[in-house]
């Protein structure tokens, strides 16, 4: 039987891309709102980067049998995106947006390695890569406008 995601994940995950797209469109199409749109994009990107770690913190809190050895790595991955996102918020706007895109993509790469060891469901990774690529594209487009 193929892995599937819970219905809410298939709906709420992609819905999380809507603010990324809306804020980039605002910055592109309404020049007088560009600065606020990009500032909001910066803040939303940091919020999402911090959210990514919650998955791993949750997995570490209740490890599956045989996965107890992954607890430290999971908890580390659970806090790292939030700490890096905090740093990205303190950076100049363009650098911060690029940094956030890098955080999203690097976290997905690390998660892919974990998935290859059976620590993260592949169904999650398929969703995760689609969301990360979409969000990163918006952040990078925003960086070109900053």
From TrEMBL:
The chain crosses the membrane at residues 12-30, 36-59, 71-89, 95-115. It comes from the Bacteria. Keywords: Membrane, Transmembrane, Transmembrane helix. This is DUF3429 domain-containing protein.
């Amino acid at each position: 039987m193929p892995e599937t995601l819970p219905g809410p994940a298939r709906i709420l995950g992609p819905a999380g891309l809507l603010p990324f797209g809306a804020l980039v469109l605002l910055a592109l199409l309404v020049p007088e709102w560009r600065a606020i749109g990009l500032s909001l994009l910066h803040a939303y990107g940091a919020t999402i980067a911090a959210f990514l770690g919650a998955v791993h913190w949750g997995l570490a809190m209740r490890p599956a049998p045989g996965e107890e050895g992954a607890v430290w790595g999971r908890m580390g991955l659970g806090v790292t995106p939030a700490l890096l996102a905090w740093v990205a918020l303190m950076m100049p706007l363009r650098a911060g947006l690029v940094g956030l895109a890098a955080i999203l993509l690097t976290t997905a790469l690390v998660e892919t390695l974990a998935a290859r060891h059976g620590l993260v469901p592949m169904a999650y990774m398929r969703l995760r890569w689609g969301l990360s690529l979409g969000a990163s594209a918006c952040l990078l487009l925003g960086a070109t406008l900053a």
